[in-house]
Specification:
Elements (H helix, E strand, L loop, with lengths): L15 H13 L2 E3 L4 E6 L11 E14 L8 H10 L4 E2 L4 E7 L7 E8 L2 H19 L10 H35 L1
Antiparallel strand pairs: 1-2, 2-3, 3-6, 4-5, 5-6
């Protein structure tokens, strides 16, 4: 066998996706299994000394590091966070689910990251879209036309929700058909 040379072009760097994954792992104290694509967190016991075992549960994570709205640069970050808190947008430390914001400090101040962690995929998708919609409504005024990618992101999530609902129905039908087959035998 003759020697061969393989050339690859790798761009090795610390990406936004990796950074946001590390934030999610840090905040939840969870573990991510890359092979099975399973993210698990350990919930603290409800009663302190009596029940010592913590339960291990799966969670779903949605993240975006490039949510843009030009009007974000007109308000202070603490005002933005208070607005989110007033609308019930936040993170529950005990249940290890909710929404986390990553505020980027650049010259434009019009981009932020958002991580939503939920118990179910559809619930996490819906929460992400609802929070985007609320933030869009709060940041947008009828007479201000800022650059934003909120609407596109919400539409993408709605399409994904439609596909997950179709898959759920299809899976349910297949499950019923297989049960009917086994009951006939």
């Amino acid at each position: 066998m003759s020697p061969a040379v393989w050339a690859t072009d790798l761009d090795l760097r610390y990406s936004d996706h990796l950074a946001m994954t590390q934030i999610a792992l840090y905040v939840t104290e969870g573990t991510f299994d890359c092979v099975s694509s399973r993210f698990q967190v350990q919930l603290a016991p409800k009663k302190a000394p009596v029940q010592k075992e913590a339960s291990l549960v799966s969670r779903y994570i949605l993240m975006s590091s490039s949510i843009k709205n030009g009007n974000l640069s007109f308000i202070y970050y603490n005002v933005f966070l208070q607005m989110c808190k007033a609308h019930g947008i936040g993170y529950d430390v005990r249940l290890k689910e909710g929404t986390i914001f990553i505020l980027f400090e650049d010259q434009k101040r019009n981009t932020f990251g958002m991580i939503t962690i939920g118990e179910h995929l559809q619930g996490a998708l819906m929460t992400f879209a609802q929070h985007l919609f609320i933030i869009y409504q709060e940041l947008s005024a009828p007479n201000m036309h800022a650059e934003t990618n909120f609407k596109g992101a919400i539409q993408d999530i709605e399409r994904i929700l439609g596909v997950t609902e179709q898959n759920k129905l299809k899976f349910g039908e297949e499950k019923k058909a297989s049960k009917a087959k086994t009951s006939r035998k």
